[in-house]
């Protein structure tokens, strides 16, 4: 036999004998019974049956690692629709009073982080939309006398709010009490 065939035969026989080995008895070693001898040409021969001049081979116990149950990945936290952008009013200030509501009022906000091109800024006056676009400022041409709520928010293309909206309260008066 050629050396490669012998090695293959030895490995096959060794594997087979490991599968067929009986459980060890208390007085024996813990490994399966394998015997080594030499054929007429001096090549090693392994068997589970002892032959003349065979020596028992003590095999070390196989390296075993207990099975581990994989853990599922925790679900990704979805960002709340109200937490991606933060809107802060720069002007007017909350509680401002306009003695002449007939004059235009400039409204300016800061948005953090900067608004992405796929989102828009919407300004509202008393809940009604007055401006929608990419500008951080708008102008209210006139404020009717009384209290008003000015709001700003970031929305996506479908009009869904994608940031924390901000709002302020202002009061306007017209000259001459109109």
Short description:
The chain is built from 1 helix and 11 strands. By secondary structure, it is mainly beta. The chain is rod-shaped, with a radius of gyration of 42 Å.
List the helices and strands and how they pair.
Blueprint: H1 3-20, E1 34-38, E2 44-47, E3 55-57, E4 86-91, E5 97-98, E6 105-112, E7 120-125, E8 128-133, E9 137-140, E10 146-155, E11 166-172
Parallel strand pairs: 5-11
Antiparallel strand pairs: 1-2, 1-3, 4-6, 6-9, 7-8, 7-10, 10-11
Verbal overview:
- There is one protein chain.
- The protein has one helix and eleven strands.
- By secondary structure, the protein is mainly beta.
- 12% of the residues are buried.
Based on the model shown, name its key terms.
single chain; 178 residues; mainly beta; five-stranded mixed β-sheet; three-stranded antiparallel β-sheet; 1 helix; 11 strands
- Percent range for β-strand residues: 25-35%
- Biggest sheet strand line-up: 5-11-10-7-8
What is the N-to-C succession of helices and strands? Answer: HEEEEEEEEEEE
Mean pLDDT: 82
- In oligomeric terms, what are we looking at? single chain
Ranges with pLDDT <50 over ≥5 residues? 23-29
Radius of gyration: 42 Å
Biggest β-sheet: count, sense, barrel? 5 strands, mixed
Number of helices: 1
Structure summary, number of beta strands: 11
- Relative helix content: 10-25%
Query: What is the terminal-to-terminal distance?
Result: 116 Å
Coarse shape: rod-shaped
What structural category characterises the helix and strand content? mainly beta
């Amino acid at each position: 036999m050629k050396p490669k065939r012998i090695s293959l035969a030895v490995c096959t026989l060794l594997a087979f004998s490991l599968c067929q080995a009986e459980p060890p008895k208390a007085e024996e070693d813990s490994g399966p019974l394998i015997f080594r001898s030499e054929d007429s040409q001096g090549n090693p021969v392994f068997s589970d049956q002892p032959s003349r001049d065979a020596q028992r081979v003590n095999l070390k116990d196989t390296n075993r690692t207990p099975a581990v149950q994989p853990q599922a990945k925790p679900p990704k936290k979805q960002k709340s629709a109200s937490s991606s952008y933060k809107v802060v009013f720069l002007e007017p200030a909350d509680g401002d009073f306009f003695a002449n509501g007939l004059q235009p009022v400039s409204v300016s906000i800061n948005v953090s982080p900067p608004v992405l091109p796929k989102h828009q800024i919407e300004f509202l006056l008393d809940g009604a939309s007055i401006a929608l676009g990419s500008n951080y400022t708008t102008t209210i041409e006139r404020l009717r006398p009384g209290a008003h709520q000015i709001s700003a928010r970031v929305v996506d293309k479908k009009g869904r709010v994608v940031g924390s909206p901000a709002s302020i309260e202002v009061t306007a008066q017209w000259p001459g009490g109109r």
